Amino acid sequence: MTDLPTEFPGPTPQIVVHDADAAVRFYDTAFAADELVRNHAPDGRVMHCELLMFGGRILVVDDFDDDPIRSPQALGGSTVRLHLYVPDVDAVHERATGAGATSLMAPHDAFWGDRYAIVRDPYGHHWSIATPKDDLSVSELQERGDAWAKERT
């Protein structure tokens, strides 16, 4: 058996977008993504692109009609939210919205101890971004979660 690739230590999301070239530029501007490799299909669309952001990899591909995995635009919405831990959620939120993302939730102090925000990128994918703030025990997290839920009933 061959060794598993160390640069892919766990699940690696592969996202489908309507315009991979533009999406890669957006991810670079919004999330400081570094493009590692890109392969094109015969018609010029991106069939494989690896990006490195905040220590993790994400694969970005163009929408192909014969592929059962489609872009959020083709589906009319996204079925997943990608999560990033970043050094400064406020700065990344501002950079992402400045690059064209839509803020779905402004940065705020969340009950689970993170400073947290959500954006939708111009290609329909949702990103939660967070900066750890409080290091909570399991019981503290449960208490805060219960209090948060109680406030909303």
Task: Describe what you observe in this structure.
The chain has 153 residues and is α/β, with parallel strands linked by helices. The chain has one domain: 2,3-Dihydroxybiphenyl 1,2-Dioxygenase, domain 1. It has helices spanning 20-31, 72-75, 89-98, 138-151; strands at residues 14-17, 34-40, 46-53, 56-62, 81-85, 102-109, 114-120, 126-132. Strands 1-4-3-2 form a four-stranded mixed β-sheet, with helices on one face. It has a four-stranded mixed β-sheet with strand order 5-8-7-6, covered by helices on one side. A hairpin with a 5-residue loop joins strand 2 (34-40) and strand 3 (46-53). The chain starts with 13 loop residues before the first strand and ends with a helix. The model has no long low-confidence stretch (mean pLDDT 93).
What would CATH call the architecture? Answer: Roll
Uncertain segments:
none
Q: If you average the pLDDT, what whole number results?
A: 93
For the CA atoms, what is the radius of gyration? 18 Å
Binned, the helix content reads 25-40%
The secondary-structure element order is EHEEEHEHEEEH
- Anisotropy-based shape: globular
- Structural class, judged by helices and strands? alpha/beta
CATH overall fold name: 2,3-Dihydroxybiphenyl 1,2-Dioxygenase, domain 1
CATH superfamily, called what? 2,3-Dihydroxybiphenyl 1,2-Dioxygenase, domain 1
Strand content: 25-35%
Spatial order of the strands in the main sheet?
1-4-3-2
